[in-house]
Amino acid sequence: LNAMLLLAYTALRQWDHVGILGVGGSDRWLAPVKGVQSMTTILNHLYDYETTASPSDFTEAAQTLMTRQQRRALVVMLTNVRGEDGHQLIEPLRMIRRRHVTILANLKEASVMKRMETPSRSLDEALEVGATSIYLEERERVLGELRAHGVYTVDTLAKELPVAMANAYLGAREMV
Fold first, then answer.
1. 38: which DSSP letter?
2. 65 contacts 92 by C-beta, under 8 angstroms
3. Is 14 helix (H, G, I), strand (E, B) or coil?
4. How far is CA 157 from the centre of its chain?
5. Does residue 79 contact residue 62 with C-beta atoms inside 8 Å?
6. CA 115 to CA 128: how far, in whole Å?
7. Residue 56 and which of 27, 104, 122, 169 are 20 to 30 A apart at CA?
8. pLDDT (tens digit, 9 = 90+) per residue, 65-83?
9. Quick one: which H or E segment has residue 61?
């Protein structure tokens, strides 16, 4: 949420419009607003967002976005790509990419990265590292495929996400 708020503030300071489509349990839409004073509107819209265990339907989200946002825009999707469901993102993001400049902001899990850095002391720990490695390779394959389709990707830990997303926005902004 902090990363999205920083991104929204950065975009509003650039006199860009900011809209929000929340999916996965709290499906809500905030039509694009403009101007730094609109940060209050965004905060009021987001103040009660909560994570849920509900799955996100990325295809439905893409269709909703394409219907509601007709003009070319910069679209940022924030998620945590997992190997088993990452391929469900590819077609919806390709659909969005046909009309919009698209960034996938992907959260790396600190515990997963820490597991890869911790030496194994037993067979079970070595198997964990092997499984984690396969998991990370699958994530990277999905991100690579998205990049091949013209989707910008940011793949970083939560603590680094706000700055990484702002930098990706400033870099991709020129494409809109």
1. G
2. no
3. coil
4. 12
5. no
6. 8
7. 169
8. 999 999 988 899 988 887 6
9. helix 58-68
The whole-angstrom distance between residue 116's C-alpha and the CA centroid of its chain comes to 23
Question: In sequence order, what DSSP letters do the residues of 105-159 get, joined into one string?
Answer: EEEEPHHHHHHHHSPP-SHHHHHHHHHHHHHHHHHHHHHHHHHHTT-EEEEEEGG
Residue in this structure with the two tokens 């990265």, named with its chain if needed: 113
Average pLDDT over the chain reads: 89
Phi, psi of 152 (to 5 degrees): -70, 145
* pLDDT one-digit tens code per residue, 4-24: 899 999 999 999 999 999 887
In angstroms, the Cα distances linking 50 to 26, 28, 46, 124, 144 are 8, 12, 9, 35, 30
**103: helix, coil or strand?**
strand
Strands 28-34, 74-79: pairing is: unpaired
Q: Which residues of 96-122 are buried (b: 16+ CB within 10 A; e: fewer)?
A: bbeebbbbbbbbbbeeeeebeeeeeee
